[in-house]
Amino acid sequence: MWLDETDITHLSLPQRVRCGVARSYQISSIFLDFTVVENVELALQATDRRSFRFFRPASTNAARVRQAQQLLDTVRLGDVGGLSAKRLSHRQTRQLEIAMAKASSPKVLLLDEPMAGMAPDEAERLALLLRSLAADTAVLLVEHDMDIVFSTSDRISVLCEGSLIASGSPKEIKSDPAVRSLYLPDDIGWSE
């Protein structure tokens, strides 16, 4: 794996983060007993290599609190920062994880099936957020919901059993014979 001109294949996870990669996993990983803003503050504290003080609450740093609130605003959770994280909906939990991932100011944000388990309207709301994030961060999305993939992506790579079978624009992927035969049967209605 290369990021810019750096081979990150064998780097540790912390080293990859320092190179500009952040990710959100398919299974949620937040601190349920913390507030929403405290989750983001902790993620920010983890990226600050100068002040790794575990015995002082992250909220004692006013600049960090402001930055956490800005990240929550970016992912459209600014109005729920004081809520306990366990009160969030599934979509909001995903949004919180994205805010936490963005705490490291990544060049590339890897998202593993962020829409899994969401109702279609919730998935579309998250897709709108992902499109807005792509303005300043490259987003690599692993997703099986083809409607979401086509509506959020500039470029799509299709894998089958670990092998790349096609890569291109959404229009090119929709018309690719191998992709169509494997994933896009005509009766689904994806024909142009």
- Could you state the CATH homologous superfamily? P-loop containing nucleotide triphosphate hydrolases
CATH topology: Rossmann fold
**Distance N to C terminus:** 34 Å
Helix content: 40-55%
Q: What best-fitting shape do the alpha-carbon axes yield?
A: globular
Query: How is the main sheet built?
Result: 3 strands, parallel
Highest CATH level, the class:
Alpha Beta
In total, how many domains does the architecture comprise? 1
CATH architecture: 3-Layer(aba) Sandwich
- Quote the beta fraction: 15-25%
Spatial strand arrangement across the major sheet? 3-4-5
Estimated radius of gyration: 18 Å
Tally the helices: what do you get?
A: 8
Compute the average pLDDT.
Answer: 88
How many strand units?
7
Low confidence ranges: none
Helix/sheet category: alpha/beta
Give me the strand/helix succession: EEHEHHHEHEHEEHH
Provide key terms for this protein.
globular, alpha/beta, 7 strands, 41% helix, Rossmann fold, 192 residues, 8 helices, three-stranded parallel β-sheet
